[in-house]
Every structure is written in C-alpha cells, then in structure tokens.
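User: Reviewer 2 asked us to show a designed sequence for the structure in our supplementary figure. I'm pasting the structure tokens here. Could you produce the per-position amino acids so we can include them in the response letter?
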C-alpha cells in the first residue's frame, strides 16, 4: 500500500461515526441525567427504558450524566454543568436532584425518575396538571407508610415504640408514618439527621428514645451512611425497616417500597413524549403501582425473629 492510500484510509476510519449508520452529533437528541447518589440500577433501568423506545446511545441520542455521590450540596453546580451542554430534557433521580434542577432552570424540561412529594416541595402545582417545566414519577402514596408498618409489625409482633431517623422536615412519608403509627397504636419518636458530622449524635438520640424498631427515611444522606446505620442497628439488636430494597440487601430486616427500577423505566416514556413535542406541564405525574417486599432472613435469624411463612410467601425477594 502506498503512503497516500494509507493516509486516506486512516482518515476515513477516524471520520467514521461510532456505529454503522450513526447520525451526525448535531442530529442526536441530548439528555442530561442528574443523580443524587452514585450510578446504580435505577439509572441503568432508565437507559433500558430508552432502548425499548428505540433510543440508542451513539446513534440517535447523547446522554450526559452527573452524580453527586450523596453530596447534595454539589447538586446545584452539577445541574448548571448539565445545562451548559444544552440538553433537551434533564432527568433527575431523587428529590434533592429534582429541586436542584428546578432551581437551575424554569425552561428546560425536567423529568423526575422518582421523587418524594413534588407538591409538598412546591415543584409542581398538582399531580394532574403540574404546570411549569417539570413532570415524571412521584413516590408519595398515602397508604404506603401504613402498609409498611403493618408488615413490620407482623415481623416484630411486640413492636410498640418506633423511632424515625432522617431528614424529617422534608419528607412526606414521615407524616404518613406518624399517622399510620397512631392507627396501629405505636408510639413514635423522631430523630433529625441533617449533616454527615451529626450522625453519631443522632444515633445516640435513637438509643435514648428506647425504640423496639427503627424506620430510616431513605435520602441521599442516610443512603451514604447506610453501612454505619446498619452496623449501629445490628450492634444494638434493633430491627430496621426502610423504603428502598438496597437497605434490605445491605442488612436491614426488611423493606417495603415502590420499585425504583420500574419507576425509572417509566420515566423514559416521559422523555420520549417530550422529545416528540409534549409539554412537561401538561403531562400528569404518575404514582407507583409496583411495590416490592424484601425480607432479610439472615438478619431476622440474628435478631431471633421468626418470619411468618405467610409473609415469606408474599415477599418479592428473600435474602438468606
């Protein structure tokens, strides 16, 4: 091969698109992902949802991702970084990410893959007609907390005192948990946990409340300190329940919660509608219909608890 032919062929290889028949970069849709925690299965489920709708990275779509790794103070900066790439849609994972995105833009469409209570957080006007530039999936369902506590009490039949740990002022599920606890005749103690350096003090306060069970509100902060909180619960033989399956997988006694992967896949349908011309403010916000019960049998045995066979039969996952 002569030198000219070699150089020409090399240039063709360099200039070739990533995939066969891939579109020029300027013709691809651009999406920004803003995640409160680290990369995980919900983000992967969202991408899976996009693929099912015909969107292929490197062909007709470009995805820019930013992960706060549990540092919620970084979210506003990361949201502004995404905006500089001029995305057509920003997809958020977690309430803090949704708030940061909303604070950064009132024009770029925002889709919540999942968030707690968007009305209480003043992100939207209503679920049916959110208005503005944000829509997506809300995890706030009034009956969820009651069902979770009923299941928890089946596993811990002598439960009379429950302590709630987390960012209390921002979480609608705290209020729902209190209401459900009163219905079940439980006494509820509340322990605020707002800063990483306050964890030791918060855990001491939990002990002082003498609970027979602990409910940890799942937020970026509690998830970041999941190992320490679970070690504390294990060391004090304290049954712990939370609101995402990751807690049970890591050692909590049980979780009952919406399926975040299902919610994230559903978020892809919102992105598809917006890319095809729909306005986010006209798209009703959905609430979860798919819930999962996860029981950690190993933890139950360590606590000396016997899981009723009927409950094991209803569990979506049993960790042994």
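Assistant: Here is a per-position design you can include in the supplement:
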């Amino acid at each position: 091969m002569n030198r000219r032919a070699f150089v020409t062929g090399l240039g063709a290889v360099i200039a070739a698109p990533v995939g066969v028949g891939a579109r020029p970069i300027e013709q691809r849709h651009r999406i920004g992902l803003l995640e409160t925690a680290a990369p995980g299965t919900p983000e992967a489920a969202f991408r899976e949802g996009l693929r099912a709708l015909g969107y292929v990275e490197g062909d007709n779509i470009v995805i820019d991702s930013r992960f706060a790794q549990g540092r919620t103070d970084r979210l506003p900066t990361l949201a502004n970084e995404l905006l500089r790439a001029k995305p057509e849609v920003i997809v958020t994972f977690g309430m803090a990410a949704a708030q940061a995105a909303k604070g950064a833009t009132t024009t770029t469409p925002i889709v919540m893959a999942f968030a707690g209570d968007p009305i209480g957080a003043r992100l939207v006007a209503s679920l049916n007609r959110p208005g503005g530039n944000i829509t997506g999936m809300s995890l706030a369902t009034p009956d969820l907390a009651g069902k979770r506590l009923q299941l928890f009490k089946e596993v811990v039949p002598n439960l009379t005192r429950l302590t709630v740990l987390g960012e209390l002022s921002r979480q609608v599920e705290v209020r729902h948990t209190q209401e459900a606890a009163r219905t079940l005749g439980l006494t509820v103690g509340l322990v605020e946990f707002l800063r990483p350096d306050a964890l030791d003090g918060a855990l001491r306060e939990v002990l002082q409340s003498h609970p027979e069970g602990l409910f940890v509100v799942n937020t970026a902060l509690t998830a970041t300190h999941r190992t320490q909180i679970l070690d504390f619960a294990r060391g004090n033989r304290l049954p712990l329940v939370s609101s995402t399956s990751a807690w049970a997988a890591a050692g909590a006694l049980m979780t009952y919660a919406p399926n975040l992967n299902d919610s994230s896949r559903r978020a892809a349908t919102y992105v598809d509608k917006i890319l095809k011309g729909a306005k986010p403010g006209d798209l009703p916000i959905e609430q979860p219909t798919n819930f999962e019960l996860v029981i950690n049998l190993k933890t139950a045995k360590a606590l000396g608890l016997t899981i009723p066979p009927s409950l094991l039969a209803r569990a979506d996952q049993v960790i042994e």
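For the response letter, you might also mention the following. The chain has a mean pLDDT of 90. Residues 142-258+291-319 form a domain with the Rossmann fold fold (CATH 3.40.50.2300).
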